[in-house]
User: Which sequence fits this backbone?
């Protein structure tokens, strides 16, 4: 399958808008500035030997009889993905979040592992939510989230298909989920407040036991599990708030070009530059009409304002995406200690992108 150039962009939030034509989902991936992100396709598969367990980034989990075809944008050193889509039009992206609950240092499933597992095992957005929370309950989340660095976090997820979208936010094994109505975005903070459509059965009781909720006031997930003042959440200068404002500015007239424009926005912080950089971006167009294909556009490179979004559509006989596959991906555990020398994981597109940036800079 060939990649044809389309306009530019990138993101760091997960943003979604419901229109008559269906759903849009967009995400920027903020990672360490020197991390390479590859775009890779895995075909559907049947697994006859269920005794053979599946190796994720750090731990093994039970395999399932069948997995769906997926396209993933992922840091090249790990098994999971920052964002991606499957053949049924399910799209998922994750964000790092922190709160009152201490981050587990034990190796378990990374949020990025849960993204890939949800895509491989679910044919609707809500079933993907079920997959993620079931795995979260069984295996937990935890482990180092950066290659050669100490960096751990819990996760929030934006999960969408042609017909609906869900926000799933977690704190350890506890979680809350909100079915999206209209425009919604997530960032590096919990954002579900009192509109909770699904939840961990012991989530409220645990918050009460820890003294985070007095059981007299209406339960507010973000207020209980984080330190955020939800009364002023929408007036803060945070990227979450800035992302919402940009979406609201274009409300009623959002196209995939609009989504790309938002992803390249620097003043809001959505397009990051510095030690943490927007290393890859994705926009998905999910028509409600099942006769129309879902279109997933990936950059596979950093610097959204100078990257090209390239379309991917699930069709029969897809060729390997060789130009965006890292040549040195291996399943060995990265050492979170120094000195640690990262292998050169730059794929061909990434190398060409670097060369183009150097030429542009030298001709200033």
Assistant:
């Amino acid at each position: 399958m060939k990649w044809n150039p389309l306009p530019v962009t990138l993101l760091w939030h997960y943003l979604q808008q419901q229109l008559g034509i269906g759903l849009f989902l967009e995400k920027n991936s903020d990672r360490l500035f020197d991390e390479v992100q590859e775009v890779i396709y895995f075909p559907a598969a049947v697994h006859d030997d269920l005794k053979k367990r599946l190796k994720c980034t750090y731990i093994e989990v039970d395999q399932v009889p069948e997995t769906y075809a997926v396209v993933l944008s992922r840091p090249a050193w790990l098994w999971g993905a920052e964002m991606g889509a499957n053949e049924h039009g399910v799209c998922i992206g994750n964000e790092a979040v922190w709160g009152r609950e201490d981050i587990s240092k034990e190796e378990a499933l990374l949020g990025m592992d849960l993204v890939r597992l949800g895509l491989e095992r679910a044919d609707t957005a809500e079933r993907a939510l079920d997959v993620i929370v079931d795995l979260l309950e069984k295996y937990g989340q935890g482990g180092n989230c950066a290659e050669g660095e100490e960096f751990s976090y819990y996760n929030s997820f934006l999960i969408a298909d042609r017909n609906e979208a869900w926000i799933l936010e977690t704190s350890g094994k506890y979680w809350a989920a909100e079915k999206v109505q209209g425009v919604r975005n997530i960032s590096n903070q919990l954002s579900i407040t009192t509109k909770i459509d699904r939840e961990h059965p012991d989530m409220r009781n645990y918050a009460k036991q820890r003294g985070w909720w007095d059981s007299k006031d209406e339960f507010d997930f973000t207020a209980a599990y984080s330190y955020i003042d939800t009364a002023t959440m929408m007036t803060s200068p945070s990227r979450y708030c800035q992302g919402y404002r940009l979406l609201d500015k274009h409300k009623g007239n959002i196209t995939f070009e609009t989504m790309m424009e938002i992803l390249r926005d620097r003043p809001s912080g959505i397009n990051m530059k510095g030690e943490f950089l927007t290393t890859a971006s994705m926009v998905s167009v999910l028509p409600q009409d099942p006769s129309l294909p879902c279109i997933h556009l990936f950059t596979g490179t950093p610097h959204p304002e100078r990257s090209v979004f390239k379309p991917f559509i699930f069709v029969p006989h897809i060729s390997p995406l060789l130009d965006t596959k890292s040549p040195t991906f291996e399943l060995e555990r990265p050492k979170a200690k120094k000195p640690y020398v990262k292998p050169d994981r730059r794929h061909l597109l990434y190398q060409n992108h670097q060369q183009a940036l150097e030429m542009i800079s030298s001709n200033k």
Observations:
- The chain is about 20% helix and 25% strand.
- The longest strand covers residues 276-287.
